[in-house]
Amino acid sequence: MTSQVSSPAEQADEAVVGEQRKAAGAKDVRRLDRVIIRFAGDSGDGMQLTGDRFTSETASFGNDLSTLPNFPAEIRAPAGTLPGVSSFQLHFADHDILTPGDAPNVLVAMNPAALKANIGDLPRGAEVIVNTDEFTKRAMQKVGYATSPLEDGSLDGYQVHPVPLTTLTVEALKEFDLTRKEAERSKNMFALGLLSWMYHRPTEGTERFLRSKFAKKPDIAAANIAAFRAGWNFGETTEDFAVSYEVAPAATAFPPGVYRNISGNLALSYGLIAASRQADLPLYLGSYPITPASDILHELSKHKNFGVRTFQAEDEIAGIGAALGAAFGGSLAVTTTSGPGVALKSETIGLAVSLELPLLIVDIQRGGPSTGLPTKTEQADLLQAMYGRNGEAPVPVVAPRTPADCFDAALEAARIALTYRTPVFLLSDGYLANGSEPWRVPDLEELPDLRVQFAQGPNHTLDDGTEVFWPYKRDPQTLARPWAIPGTPGLEHRIGGIEKEDGTGNISYAPANHDFMVRTRQAKIDGIEVPDLDVDDPDEARTLVLGWGSTYGPITAAVRRLRRAGESIAQAHLRHLNPFPKNLGAVLGRYDKVVIPEMNLGQLATLIRAKYLVDAQSYNQVNGMPFKAEQLAAALKEAIDG
């Protein structure tokens, strides 16, 4: 673990205080600038809840943080097996951080499977807290341990803390009228209490949470709180934990404001609600549950008070069909899905392109192809979003870079959809969706004005002087067609997938008209106003690292490492992938080398090479996990030196 650097005088003072504490029988307290903790156990051990509560208390304490939940795709994988291991990693610090961390400083392993699945990620000297009660002969054999790793010396390079978590929890709850199995379920709260003591985390929020969560079962709430307090007290009294740690709040990492911890899917949900309010339109979500996008459906269904309507359809096609119908009716329409769902929605997305109606397609990407890796992350839907439809059907593509940035990306996607009357792809991924970080709650004055003007009457005069409504008469600036709400007198018009005649919207098979309409729809997308690409280049470097989406955190962390080591490297990150920023070509032309890290086999690199004729170098990973900063730094150093 990295220690915060103190001056000689401060070190002397700390030494005196440490001696005084030892003389008084108090435990040593060490100050750190950052810590990476991973909770790991069986998928029924409550590791996600434990990590989430530790994260919430850390956020309330004021640390900067980044999280990485990692769980099986199966609802309940076989107990005690490697495929059934669920983990939650949290990186928190007294300064600005960007990733959940490369390697844990502390591993809490609730069983042999959790230890075996995660021990390879730990650096030597890391702390390992193991639940010894679960290290039975049968449990160890199930994951391939011939001998106990707690006794055979294989963990000698780590600081191992053997703790009988299950026994201690059951003993702490013996006064409650619970069966042993019921009592054992609280062992995650015992572990949470112990870690909360070790790192001086607040406890009041967790106790409030437990009372609220089990409000209808006060005995269960009381038992969990008792287990949580027992874990805290165990840390305070046991001799095995002689040291606790302090990580000060990240006072200088955040601009002034009100902050909360937020996941990508929650930020995206709030962004959609904010967009509907700023547009003064009802929000309609037509969706079908799919990992890792389902949380958006769950969250939006809670906000009927903001005029949100959610429709859980029978399948992906019905979900987007209902959303497109809502767009025709004047709503801010959204459909949420992952890659397999995008494949099913593709025909209706093409219909939305033809109808030229605003529609947000939110794709929370996961590993593929087909069903692939439902709970693992990937960036492999970019080319599908760009070209995954029949005919020439261009669609804008927007990608957030961090969990909190999902809020702003939702607003930006809505701006483009409403202004240009087009479906828009918003490409998040599992890493952003489930990960979390501090988010500054914006003031209403900071949000963009997204209000639109519906068509109210005739907009075209025929040669004989008759005033009529032409549904495909375009705004000369944006090339957007008018948005006419059904039922408005005099604005009746045809819709459907057959090609429209320019202006009138009548069905047309004329070759010249089709050519014109295809080129016009493309010109509309090409003409979308997006901000120029910002480049971070303090030293006029020769090498540029270009990223998009969730690679922002690992890339930025890697760039920081290289610059601290004296290397010169520039960084730029794309939010708009279609159309690209107008200055992208000029930016690429300034550098001898361009490196593009992606969690796919080089999809953005393919687009960059094709459009700008730049020999971009790909650095790719498709293992279902985000990049590690150290790994990226090594690859970028090799590119600089090559």
Automatic annotation (TrEMBL):
Residues 541-625 form the Pyruvate:ferredoxin oxidoreductase core domain. Signal peptide: none annotated. It comes from the Bacteria. It is an enzyme of class 1 (oxidoreductase). Residues 286-501 form the Pyruvate flavodoxin/ferredoxin oxidoreductase pyrimidine binding domain. Residues 1-23 are annotated as: Disordered. Residues 44-231 form the Pyruvate/ketoisovalerate oxidoreductase catalytic domain. Its EC number is 1.2.7.11, 1.2.7.3. One of its GO terms (biological process) is response to oxidative stress. PANTHER family: 2-OXOGLUTARATE OXIDOREDUCTASE SUBUNIT KORA (PTHR32154:SF20), PYRUVATE-FLAVODOXIN OXIDOREDUCTASE-RELATED (PTHR32154). NCBIfam families: OAFO_sf. This is 2-oxoglutarate ferredoxin oxidoreductase subunit alpha. The lineage of its organism: Bacteria, Bacillati, Actinomycetota, Actinomycetes, Kitasatosporales.
